[in-house]
Amino acid sequence: QLQLVESGGGLVQPGGSLRLSCAASGFTLDYYAIAWFRQAPGKEREGVSCTSSSGSSITYADSVKGRFTISRDNAKNTVYLQMNSLKPEDTAVYYCAVTSPGVCGENTWYRAIRYNYWGQGTQVTVSS
Fold first, then answer.
1. Are 58 and 108 in contact (CB under 8 A)?
2. Which residue, 103, 83, 122, 113, is CA-closest to 31?
3. Residues 6, 94 contacting (CB under 8 angstroms)
4. How far apart are CA 115 and CA 95, in angstroms?
């Protein structure tokens, strides 16, 4: 059974950090591009970051550039999202998703319809 499971969410104060994990089971992530999305209440799902299958091509939404870092460990079949300098507006449910072929696409990586498999999401709340 193909599955993506996110973890690492929680409550953090503004300026704090969290690291999200996305673990795959039932398939290998080696040939997939992987993205993180987020969805806040009443808002559309938003692309946060994407890494290609090789890890050589990475993109970020402007709203998180310089604060978030995506990385992948194919040996562990896991992708991470390190989030630093968190702001209240980062509060959302965060999802990981995969797409094949393993390219993000400069103008398409943020389109949710491209992604074949999704995790169930993990809640991130930034509040004092």
1. no
2. 103
3. yes
4. 11
DSSP character string of 115-127: -SEE---EEEEE-
29-32, long-range: CB < 8 A, 24+ apart: 29/53, 29/72, 29/74, 29/77, 29/78, 29/79, 29/98, 30/74, 31/100, 31/101, 31/102, 32/98, 32/99, 32/100, 32/102
Strands 10-12 and 122-126: what pairing?
parallel
**How many residues can be counted in the chain?**
128
d(CA 39, CA 54): 27
Q: How do residues 55-101 score in pLDDT, each as one tens digit? A: 899 999 999 999 999 999 989 999 999 999 999 999 999 999 999 98
- The yes-or-no verdict on residue 106 having pLDDT over 90 is no
**Longest alpha-carbon distance in the chain:** 41
- With CA atoms as reference, report the closest residue to 27 among 55, 53, 58, 59: 53
Instruction: Tell me how far apart the terminal alpha carbons of the chain are, to the nearest angstrom.
Output: 40
Residue type, 65: K
